[in-house]
Amino acid sequence: MGDSVKLSDDQRLDWLRLIRSDNVGPRTFRDLVNTFGGARAALAALPGLARRGGASGTRICTQAEAEAELNAGRARGIELIALGEPDYPPRLQATYDPPPLLATRGNRNILTQPLVAIVGSRNASAAGVKFAERLARELGDAGYGIVSGLARGIDAGAHRASLASGTIAVLAGGHAHIYPSEHVELLDQIVIDGAGVSEMPLNWEPRARDFPRRNRLISGLSIGVVIVEAARRSGSLITARIAGEQGREVFAVPGSPLDPRAEGTNGLLKQGATLVTEAADVIAVLEPILGREKYRPVEEPEPDAGPADREPGDDERSRIVSLLGPSPVSIDDLVRLSRASPAVVRTVLLELELAGRIERHGGALVSLR
Description:
It is a single chain. The chain has 16 helices and twelve strands. The chain is of the alpha/beta class. It has three domains: about 10-105, no CATH class; about 105-290, Rossmann fold, CATH 3.40.50; about 310-369, Winged helix-like DNA-binding domain superfamily/Winged helix DNA-binding domain (Arc Repressor Mutant, subunit A, Orthogonal Bundle). The strands form two sheets. Strands 1-2-6-5-4-3-7-8-9 form a nine-stranded mixed beta sheet, sandwiched between helices. Strands 10-12-11 form a three-stranded antiparallel beta sheet. Helix 2 crosses helix 3 (about 40-50). About 45% of the residues are buried.
């Protein structure tokens, strides 16, 4: 999907229907589109795939449901930007599992600017919030957009300090269910010069397991992630871990060894995160990266006609399923051990995933649920 792609209205609805159908996540979406040559053909193939994977049935998002979400979003000023379109964030596009559609409200120009994430404790200290505000303001003055998660504490301080220069709020739920609810007005201020983004359905109410999913977008949008305050068990540490997996720079602000809110950040520093006491520390690391980096469009692989042309045989399917268990295994190992073609293995995995029987992990690993 190069940067010249522009979906038609019909294609956008097909994409929305596919990603809103049961058991179709970002990675499965891309596999389906690559395998069948487009979202419409993938939608037609879903029932058969899920049935062969062992499901009695699978819910497919209807045309009417997709149209209702699209129109309700547009009434709120929300547009769905598709993977590969010119306004799609280039760094996010280069990650392992970018959302096929990014629901965006506000100034979409900020999505393609250099971005830095600032995240931290919800139960933040006054000193932590003050430092986050100063850092966000100075990075904004230096030309960086600020990304955060609209949470209480550090996130809210970073957003408020960068309203004028531009900030992005990444939502865990849909645009119709802002969390926390007291930040609805803050989001209204953010979208004047910045943006609010979500991959979730418009009316989705965020659950605990949606926040790590949101965190991968926070780091995926950014060149680097700054953790200001984080306890030992903190969502911000999940963001830091994902940032490292995505090849992003990880920064941490040191804190008192006596403050539990600094335990996580001090731990990151021991693990090799870059120490930050001022914005110049961040800029010194990021400027050389920006100087040598030129964005290249991420090309979509050509559709693989093999799986669409030939359904896997029962013996092939049995061999592949027998190799799966609760421990993650690489897809390459499945190909080698099953003696099946990569195309056949991908198709069987699609069948199992659409039936809700497997879970995908980072690094092309899969396991049975």
